[in-house]
Amino acid sequence: MTEGLYKTGDYVELRLLSGRKGIPGGENSLVSESIITQTGADNEIRIAMPTQRGQASPIEDGEVYELRFIASSGSFACRAQVVDDLDAEIGNGFELKLISELTKDCKRMFYRLDKVIPVSYSIVEDEHTGQMLGGTCFNLSAGGVRFSSGTDIERGRKILMNLMLDGENEVITVSGRVIYTDNVGQEDAVYEHRVEFTDINPDTKERIVRYCFDEACK
Question: What proportion of the chain, given as a percentage, has pLDDT over 70?
Fold first, then answer.
């Protein structure tokens, strides 16, 4: 395995494969969310108390999970078994041992957050070049964004976006390419756009991943 593909602070999803009697495993299992608090030798990691829909979701020794690491370098999956609860009741979390090879996960590159976030943007090489336009994001990940605005944007256009993650106190600037646009307004002109981020630096990508996870856990 390649431990360098994940690190302390990375977001991780857990899907139960086998465990306590009476709790279903497999594809229909609910996904829990956590973060890595420590990495160690022998393919072992420690994670914080997992949550489901904002509520604590304890796990037990011997249970086997499918893990999905959401890191700045992408998404990776493997199987892991719970080997110690580390006094989870007092906040020490859980220890897991990775029991399969870590592979690139193409199902889900980055965790997606459904939340209303103000954005401003400019369209590159367009009549609006240099003019900042307003919009509203309603779905965000480190790979891209879905937002609405009153301006039609041709598919393939490059845009520069300011994401106001915590109001106006923290603004992250990213560049992207419009991959879909649709007029969703009835009487008023309202357009939905899907944007794929391009040339995003690792620090910015990690900041968005962290923001999405933190907001999902509130």
Answer: 78
Q: Give 117-216's CATH code, choosing from 1.20.1560.10, 2.40.10.10, 2.40.10.220, 3.40.50.10330.
A: 2.40.10.220
What is the Cα Rg of the chain in Å?
20
Give the CA dihedral 165, 125, 196, 102, nearest 10 degrees: -100
Backbone torsions φ then ψ of 29, nearest 5 degrees: -70, 145
| Collapsed DSSP state (helix, strand, coil) of residue 210 | helix
From residue 153, give the alpha-carbon distance in Å to each of 54, 100, 124, 180, 204. 36, 45, 11, 9, 24
CATH of domain 3-104: 2.30.110.10
Q: Are strands 51-52 and 44-47 parallel, antiparallel or unpaired?
A: unpaired
Predicted structure pTM score: 0.56
Supply the pLDDT for residue 84: 87
